[in-house]
Amino acid sequence: AQSVTQLDSQVPVFEEAPVELRCNYSSSVSVYLFWYVQYPNQGLQLLLKYLSGSTLVKSINGFEAEFNKSQTSFHLRKPSVHISDTAEYFCAVIRYGGSQGNLIFGKGTKLSVKP
Amino acid sequence: KAGVTQTPRYLIKTRGQQVTLSCSPISGHRSVSWYQQTPGQGLQFLFEYFSETQRNKGNFPGRFSGRQFSNSRSEMNVSTLELGDSALYLCASSFLGQGEQYFGPGTRLTVT
């Protein structure tokens, strides 16, 4: 079975400051890793994914995450946040291969960017 | 391509009633998964359908059921509604059920 731990439920930060949202996972098999973002009253939007290849993945809006297999982590970072980044962020894993089409989510981290 | 669509967006039902939610996946995607999101339990997997067959099921009572049609559209049904069924129900589609999933806007169900 897989599990995901997001270590911070809320992260307040000032605009233009750097931020790191932490995610650790546990799995006895190989997994794919994802970060999703949810704005108020909306569904989840895929922000980043790690399927294979380079362990550092980047989004078009400045977020990046690094897969660290030895530490079983997939932390999300942004060097300078904007007010519009205020949202809830979910880390998720899915088992590699097989026929299990279900994502396992962390509890989410609410990022609050203050002016 | 159009994204995942879900109807209706909002529903208010009374305890004991039943409800049907609908999801249309991204064109070409054959896998549809359903998730329940609540403040207390977070995001929990309900079930996944692939080519009209339920391929995987989460830990929910039998009151929760679903199906998938030949055009990959999916419905989920909840019978004998309870207050605790109040939640945001999210549908996600993917090409084969592995890798990334794309979510719809959700259906907000309120049970009174």
> What ranges of chain B have pLDDT less than 50 throughout 5 or more consecutive residues?
none
Element order, helices and strands of chain B?
A: EEEEEEEEEEE
Number of strands of chain B: 11
- The overall pLDDT of chain B, averaged over residues, is 94
Q: List how many beta strands of chain A DSSP finds.
A: 12
Task: Summarize the structure in words.
The complex is a heterodimer of chains A (115) and B (112). Chain A has 115 residues and is an all-beta fold. Chain A is built from no helices and twelve strands. Chain A is globular and about 45 Å long. Helices cover 0% and strands 54% of the residues of chain B. In chain B, the strands form two sheets. In chain B, strands 2, 4, 5, 6, 9, 10 and 11 form a seven-stranded mixed β-sheet that branches. A four-stranded antiparallel β-sheet of chain B has the order 1-3-8-7, with no helix packed on it. The N and C termini of chain B lie far apart (37 Å). Chain A binds chain B through residues 32, 34, 36, 42-46, 49, 51, 90, 94, 96-108, and chain B through 4, 6, 31, 33, 35, 42-43, 45, 48, 50, 55-56, 58, 90, 92, 94, 97-106.
